[in-house]
Amino acid sequence: MTEEEAQTKWCPKFQVATSGGEVTSTFETDNRPQTWAEVEVGQLLVPVPTGIHHTATCIASACMAWRWRGRQGRTNGYCGFAGEDPQA
What we know:
Strand content: 35-45%
Structural class: mainly beta
Strand order of the largest sheet: 1-2
Radius of gyration: 18 Å
Number of domains: 1
Distance between the termini: 8 Å
Number of helices: 1
Shape: elongated
Order of helices and strands: HEEEEEE
């Protein structure tokens, strides 16, 4: 895939620690942070996930795991963690 295509995909190595806000609260890790929109339901505004946050997407050749396909041209590559697609 091209770098532009890769940059629209979720990175499986992305993680962020979140907390309940208290100093003594436990942390959880999340690797698919969402973008949210508020949707009106009756008289309430309810948060609804709308997609994967841009910080969790692939950074393509800026990543040490990015692998170029072939030796010429550097137009297509793949994630080294996921491995090369034999069908591509």
